[in-house]
Amino acid sequence: MDEPHYDVAVTKPATVCVGRDRELAELARRSAATHGADLIAIVGAPGIGKTMLLRRLTEQHPGAVWWAQAASWESEMSGAVLRQLFQEDVPADPAAAAGRIVDRITERANGFPALIVIDDAEHSDPASLHALATAARRHRDLPLLTVFAVTTRHPMVAELVSDELHLRGLEPAAVAELAALRGRVLHPAMVDVLTRHTRGNPRDALALLDELPASVWSRPASLLPAPAHVVAEVRGQLERCGPSSRALVEALAILGEDESLGVAACLADLDDPLGAIDEAAAAGLLAASPEYQPRLRNPLTRAAVVDLMGVRAASAAHRRAAEITNDPVRRLRHRVAATPLPDVELADDVDRLARERGAEGAWAEAARLFRDASRLTPDPLLRDDRLTRSVDALVAAGDCIGAAALMPAIESLRETALRNAVLAYLAILRGRAAEAEVRLGRAWNIVNAERDPETAALIAQRYVLHSLVRCRGDELVDWADRAISLAGDDSPAGLEAAAIRGLGLSASGQFRKASAAYDDLSSRIRHGAQAQRVTMGRGWLQLSQDDIDGARSSLEGAVAMAELGGSARITLWSLGWLARVQFLTGDWDRALHSVERGNALAASSGIVLATPLLAWTAAQVQALRGDWENAAAAVRAADAATQDYQLMQIPTLLARGQIAEAEADYAKVRRVLNPLTRMTSCTALYEPGLWPWADVLATALVVDGQLDTADAFLRRHEERARSHRSATARLRAARGRLFGARGDLPASRRAFDEALTLLDGLPLRYDLARVNFGYGQTLRRAGKRREADAMISTARELYVSLGAQTFVQRCERELKAGGLHQPRGPRAHVELTPQEEAVTSLVAQGLSNREVAAELYVSPKTVQYHLTRIYAKLGVRSRAELNALRR
Questions:
Q1: Phi, psi of 76 (to 5 degrees)
Q2: Segment 477-489 mean pLDDT
Q3: Closest C-alpha to 86, from 103, 110, 111, 71
Q4: Which of 750, 760, 753, 759 has its CA nearest to residue 726?
Q5: Tens digit of pLDDT for each residue in 806-859?
Q6: Deepest in the core among 641, 680, 692, 814, taking most CB within 10 A?
Q7: Of 261, 246, 331, nearest to 295 (Cα)?
Q8: Alpha helix (H) residue ranges in 508-528
């Protein structure tokens, strides 16, 4: 008799199917189709999650479900799958068997399509497959979906199905969710390691999560082994190989993917490796690879092969590999892998290479080399020094997570200048200014610059970064000059200090010197990871000086260099400033994409310094688009980061202030941005190209009627912005509003016209829209409705092109209040003026008199005057009655 159909979700907990929402939705869509029969295949490697996906599908399917799991020993038994499906014997004839299938489906029809699932379908007997295909082809109107799950593309199944869905490895987010289900909360860096090692295979990831101790998962630098089931599988595959193919497989595992077949054949002592390749491939150990470049199937296979070789054999193979490889870096790597005990000479060689790689800016590789040198060093003081340098290199590479995992070991060491400098470096990248200040001070007090200029230069370079994020340009330049003097122009500390020095010059108002410094650096450093620092610094400077196209080119180049071994910290700053460039030029979707990339990198690296900068752009775009929820979420993300540094506080305040401006809440704008007036001792605030806040605050003061305060405030900032084109334009527009509020329309016109002239030729679409909008509001208040209409219409077109719906709506209200563009159609029998209509509409939305005044750019007294006339015309006595009338 038929297997009873039951609601699985009621009788037992739902199957957990992580990371397959898209595939599950597609299968659910297909299984819900009522237009006829269909057959599809799900293709995926063992352990990829096919069974879990199909079990979840059957649990949520409302119609009748039949399930079978084909077995290899039944593949020659005619009708084996059908008997398992329907729990009864079926006719041998495919047509008769198809009729029996249709009968069973019809008997169980409940108004929903039926679902048949065959797991491990590559083992299905041909008779069952023919019967299922015949049922689908002869009864095309039958509401039935048949799903075959196969490990590889099966010829017979492929011939029957109409489509194939291929399951790939899980993304890191899904792997993190799997780990959480096993009670392990992994940092994104460790998630990435596990995802790459297992290629996102759920079964392999879960096995490692179960088999390895908790200590492994707290160290992103850990080398993960293969899970036990993979080791067992690889053992069986190696047993099917002869001596030659086994030797080749072991050679490939020792060498990795960097070496050629020639070196692998030499290590395996094979004159002709082709036969060995064929045999290893037939055993399932090698992946298909063109041009005689055999590769092991995946990282887990390599780990399993090395494990099965044993420590002694693997060490001997590494020694032999060091003798035959031509590359000095690989040779050293093999020597380290072959040496389990301290070795002074080898440790010195590794340390020397680590310093060379650090000088080139390849800090991630330098960190691994310093760690290897530390392990091989017998002298305890030197061993500690090299371990400390390993952590320093990790921080320089932007791997704060890996560095933090080693912090307990570093903090347990005796206090040295280097140790304090390293701990200060990590504190800076975590946004902890007070801790960094204390540790840098202790480091500088301890170090003897004459005896140890290298460490002194390192500390000075950390002071450079510390001064940068404190927005202290003069201090930055002083420390940069010290670092360069102590270490030389070509040292890692000297180069990094020089790459930031130009930003200190710019923040101090020495723009020409800053530009010349970057020209010199760019001519000297054209390649490698250090070039990324110079390119990012130049882009930062170009943005501050209105070279928007140059800034975009430089910052995009710095982001691209991340793929060539660049620093995560430098990439983060590049993405943060690139997002600002994209925002200013109106490329808002790309700006949000840059923010998304930056946030992901910040999460995986543990660097929080640039988080507020990224959040500023996200908050401003979302607020202008009217997405208040996501705008608030961006500000919360900025708040979540420790904000001891001015370079973190400023963008957070700007994000809040510009959300308030988008809301037309100018009182809130003043409250939020006023703290910036007390931070003007920070020279970076004199760079109005980076921090466009002064005109926003000045406008809020004008709207609030604080005209003398606005005048004095503008005078200070106009003097500082004289050499900056876009900043002067923004301030002239704010001055135009002030003149308009004082009734001096000719002066107001001149100020706004100067602003528009300054912006002409610059690709700053957002600034252009704001100036036109402010110009139009001022003209309308002065009674120049026709001219106001033209300016606000221009602003509206710009805002529409940007997608700034918040200001599009404000422009439309301004146009309506102006009375020249009234919508045609029936009106109420009581005539309100355009201004009264605008006031009524805003009051009906629940706005206060002050909020209506800010929105329409009039005084609260004017709003109350209009309300009094509106009440009289409409015969109402209160806002509540007005709201009720307008509904």
A1: -100, 0
A2: 92
A3: 103
A4: 759
A5: 999 999 888 887 666 544 333 345 678 878 888 888 888 778 888 888 877 777
A6: 814
A7: 261
A8: 511-524
Residue 2: pLDDT band with limits 50, 70, 90: very low
Give the residue from 584, 656, 576 showing the smallest Cα distance to 623.
656
SS3 149: strand
Pairwise CA distance, residues 309 & 56, whole Å: 41
Reading the block at residue 757, the tokens are 């002239």
Each residue's pLDDT tens digit, 573-600: 999 999 999 999 999 999 999 999 999 9
Residue listed under structure tokens 């995926």: 44
DSSP classification of residue 296: E
Beta-sheet strand order (sheet of 144-150):
65-69, 114-119, 144-150, 38-43, 163-166
8 Å CB contact between 98 and 131: yes
CB 703 within 8 A of CB 667: no
Q: What is the pairing mode between strands 144-150 and 295-296?
A: unpaired
Strands 295-296 and 286-287: antiparallel
Q: In this structure, are residues 525 and 490 in contact, taking their beta carbons and an 8 Å threshold?
A: no
- 883: part of which helix (H) or strand (E)? helix 879-886
Nearest to 860 by CA among 844, 847, 875: 847
* DSSP code at position 820: S
Residue with tokens 């990339």: 597
SS3 of 216-256: the string is HHCCCCCCCCCCHHHHHHHHHHHHCCCHHHHHHHHHHHHHC
DSSP 396-440: HTT-HHHHHHTHHHHHTSPP-HHHHHHHHHHHHHTT-HHHHHHHH
3-state DSSP of 23-88: HHHHHHHHHCCCCCCEEEEEECCCCCCHHHHHHHHHHHCCCCEEEEECCHHHCCCCCHHHHHHHCC
DSSP annotation of 310: -
Give which of 222, 81, 215 is closest to 149, Cα–Cα. 81
